[in-house]
């Protein structure tokens, strides 16, 4: 594989880690819709999956989706939110998230190298299916976790004067 692909992947990984680290120190504004918004950027990837030149048996598509769903589990379990003393909601500081995120990317690159004998259209479609298989559930569950905390009553201390 070309070294530029690895360079771009490393840059994207560093950007995600930087944004996530920064997000742990800033409250999440709004009602959580921003957690779902990145899914809109995945819409163009559907053209890779629906490419008529991508030919794979049904078991390969379902295996790619199952691998994606398995890869979403560590991301889901390590993404949590908390309401801090200022009553704002923040992402929980968790080193496990960074380890699982890097692990997911490493597995994706191993899968890409394993599938390198395939035609490029089919390989791109299957790798994109894996990506959709872990990003969509992770983002949806993250949104649901945030909304659950957002809709719960904040812990305000009221002092009654006598």
Describe this structure in words.
- The structure is a single chain.
- This protein is mostly helical and 162 residues long.
- It has one domain (3-35, 44-151).
- Helices cover 63% and strands 4% of the residues.
- The protein contains six helices and two strands.
- The chain has a two-stranded antiparallel ribbon.
- A hairpin with a 5-residue loop joins strand 1 and strand 2.
- Helix 4 runs parallel beside helix 6.
- It is elongated.
- Mean pLDDT is 85; it is low at 158-162.
Compact overview of the structure:
With 162 residues, the chain is mostly helical. Helices cover 63% and strands 4% of the residues.
Give the strand order of the largest sheet, numbering strands 1, 2, ... along the chain. 1-2
Total of DSSP H or I helical runs spanning 4+ residues: 6
Q: Runs with pLDDT <50, length 5+?
A: 158-162
Q: Spell the H/E element sequence.
A: HHHHEEHH
Task: Tell me the overall shape.
Answer: elongated
Helix content: 55-70%
Tell me the total number of β-strands: 2
Major β-sheet annotation: 2 strands, antiparallel
Q: What is the radius of gyration?
A: 19 Å
**Rounded mean pLDDT score:** 85
What is the number of independent domains? 1
Report how far the terminal alpha carbons are from each other.
74 Å
Which percent range describes the beta-strand content?
under 5%
């Amino acid at each position: 594989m070309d070294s530029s692909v690895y360079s771009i992947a490393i840059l994207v990984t560093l950007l995600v880690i930087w944004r996530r680290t920064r997000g742990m120190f800033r409250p999440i504004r709004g009602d959580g819709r921003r957690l779902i918004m990145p899914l809109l950027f995945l819409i163009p990837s559907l053209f890779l999956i629906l490419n008529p030149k991508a030919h794979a048996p049904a078991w390969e598509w379902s295996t790619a989706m199952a691998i994606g769903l398995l890869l979403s589990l560590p991301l889901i379990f390590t993404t949590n939110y908390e309401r801090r003393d200022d009553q704002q909601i923040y992402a929980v500081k968790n080193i496990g998230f960074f380890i699982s995120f890097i692990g997911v990317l490493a597995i994706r690159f191993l899968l890409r190298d394993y599938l390198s004998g395939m035609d490029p259209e089919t390989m791109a479609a299957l790798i994109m299916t894996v990506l959709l298989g872990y990003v969509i559930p992770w983002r949806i569950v993250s949104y649901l976790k945030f909304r659950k905390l957002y809709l719960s009553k904040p812990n305000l201390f009221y002092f009654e004067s006598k």
